[in-house]
Amino acid sequence: MSTARIVLLILASAIIAAAARAQDYPSHTITLLHGFPPGGNVDVLARITADEMSKGLSQGIVVEPRPGVVGSIAAEAVARSRPDGYTLLFLPSAHAVTAAIYKSLKYKPVDDFAWISTVSFYPFVMVVRKDSKIASLDDLLREAKAAPGRLSYGSTGVGSIHHMTVELLANATGVKFLNVPYRGEGQVITGLLGGQIDFAVATVTVVAPNIESGELRALGVTSKTRWKDLPNVPTFDEAGVPGYEVISWSGFAAPAGTPQPIVDRLNAEVRRTLSVPSVKSRIEDLGGDARPTAPDEMRELVARQVALWAKVAREANIELQ
After folding, report:
1. Residues 36 and 133 grouped into a single domain
2. Which of 34, 93, 140, 232 is the least crowded, having the fewest Cβ atoms under 10 Å away?
3. Beta bridge mates, 252
4. Distances in Å between the alpha carbon of 294 and those of 22, 163, 171?
């Protein structure tokens, strides 16, 4: 038998075996990793979706947080796991930011994953204290141009999505701001309310109660269109920064090489899960828009955001090991 024929037989056997595994999938418990602390937004979203998906898949899904290096520890673990559909990754848009600024990652942020589907999308909102003399985004930019680097804002650390969102604004408008790092979004808002910083860009759900109570004033949302929960707040585009958009997301991925029938099964299950009224309403209560995508759409989204944040990082000279 020729070498070429042997190779073809081996390939055919592998394809048949993969198809058989996919047909039986899942036959035991699935592990869902994410790289953020228990109880946070990512953890809550992972558990909401995993709980409902386990019903449709007739198998348990164990959510396992592995915090560290802005989600990259969990991402690396999944990228290096067997591509059989039993180890999955739940990740937010911070994945793309991490890929853009950390130079020592041991995985390829796009190519080492089989993309399954997004789960939710949500914007950020820029806020100031109620007693701030800054009444609009235009006011803030005028102030920043008059005194470069004096206006301060809170972020969850250098290279965080909050930091990069403001850097994108600075890059687009030619101004400079002072970044003040905090351990979490809650501490950022506490710092803002206490007068330690001048403004913040935060997740809608984190600041919505303070906006509703009047303690904070919203200057703009980072989405392309006005956000349903803040209909009176203009977009950055409307407020004078043409084309500006930062939309955060969360979703599912698997290791690259996961058989397409398994990816398709998981994509279908995410779609079913997000159509369940109780799941949809819980995600909306967290400030998100429950929205699935096709695997290739999610891959394109991640690749596009990695390129965007890499450009911002280069121009702002942000690089971490």
Report:
1. no
2. 232
3. 90, 117
4. 19, 29, 32
Instruction: Give the CA diameter of the chain.
Output: 83
What domain count does the chain have? 2
Contact in structure between 253 and 91 (CB atoms under 8 Å): yes
Tokens for 273, please give them.
């899960």
Contact (CB, 8 A) for 92 and 253: no
List, run by run, the mean pLDDT of 10-residue segments along the chain (321 residues): 53 50 88 92 94 98 93 96 98 94 94 98 96 97 97 92 95 96 90 98 88 96 92 94 94 98 98 98 92 98 96 90 75
Domain match, 201 and 56 both: no
**What is the CATH number for 144?**
3.40.190.10
How far is Cα 177 from Cα 198, in angstroms, rounded to an integer? 10
Q: Is the pTM of this model over 0.90?
A: no
Question: Pairing mode, if any, of strands 289-290 and 113-129?
Answer: antiparallel
Paired sense of beta strands 178-181 and 152-155, if any: parallel
d(CA 99, CA 193): 32
